[in-house]
Specification:
By secondary structure, this protein is of the alpha/beta class. Helices cover about 30% and strands about 30% of the residues.
């Protein structure tokens, strides 16, 4: 089945120019076409259409997934009264000393929070249980640069823009016809606005053609 993801602005990244009122056609797990909405719809009659506000971009790359899933505790919603909602790092993580069962839940929630930040590609360490959890979620593992330390002084951040700074430095790669349908949609006006707002503005994440996150 074909799905057309349309947005106010499509930012393919790479050498391709932005497409105002653009759309990306997804066939299965691959991108079948990229172009102006009217052209794309006319060429693919009967396709399901998902219309999004804001900008549509490639999915993002999170270099610090290993750290975020092994040295951070992501509280369960049922623990808000005790722990709050923010990820626990550093001394707070050490003081909590979560056991294996608690950390397994944290890993699942951490992966969901990465997806909620437009992440589709992650760099990982060697722990097999983490790699298995990431693989089950469908996230794509990329060769990891020597970046297992936190990206900023006060600890790691779920927002890949903290280290990547702009879309060119944060996207997993350009959207290309025939390439994997890994993309994200953000509540932003353009690339500059997106870098300023950060990945917390994510509205939707598509991974291998599947809608894996949608902000309610």
């Amino acid at each position: 089945m074909l799905t057309i993801h349309a947005a106010d602005l499509v930012l393919p990244a790479g050498e391709d120019s932005p497409v105002a009122g653009g759309a990306v056609v997804v066939r299965g797990a691959e991108i079948a076409a990229i172009g102006p909405y009217e052209v794309v719809v006319a060429a693919h009659p009967g396709a399901r259409v998902r219309r999004w506000p804001g900008v549509l971009t490639p999915g993002l790359r999170q270099w610090h997934a290993h750290w975020l899933l092994t040295r951070v505790y992501h509280p369960d919603p049922r623990e808000v009264g005790e722990l709050g909602t923010a990820p626990l790092t550093g001394p707070a993580f050490e003081a909590l000393a979560p056991d294996a069962a608690r950390m397994a839940g944290s890993v699942r929630r951490g992966i969901q929070r990465m997806l909620a930040h437009g992440t589709t590609h992650v760099g990982l360490g060697a722990r097999p249980e983490i790699r298995q959890a990431v693989a089950r979620a469908g996230l794509r593992e990329v060769a990891n640069a020597p970046r297992l330390a936190p990206p900023v002084r006060d600890g790691p951040h779920l927002d890949p823009f903290v280290e990547g700074h702009d879309l060119a430095g944060t996207a997993h790669g350009p959207l290309t016809v025939g390439g994997p349908a890994d993309l994200a949609v953000f509540d932003a006006d353009d690339a500059t606005d997106l870098a300023g707002r950060g990945a917390g503005s994510c509205l939707a994440t598509v991974l291998g053609g599947r809608l894996v996150f949608r902000r309610r």
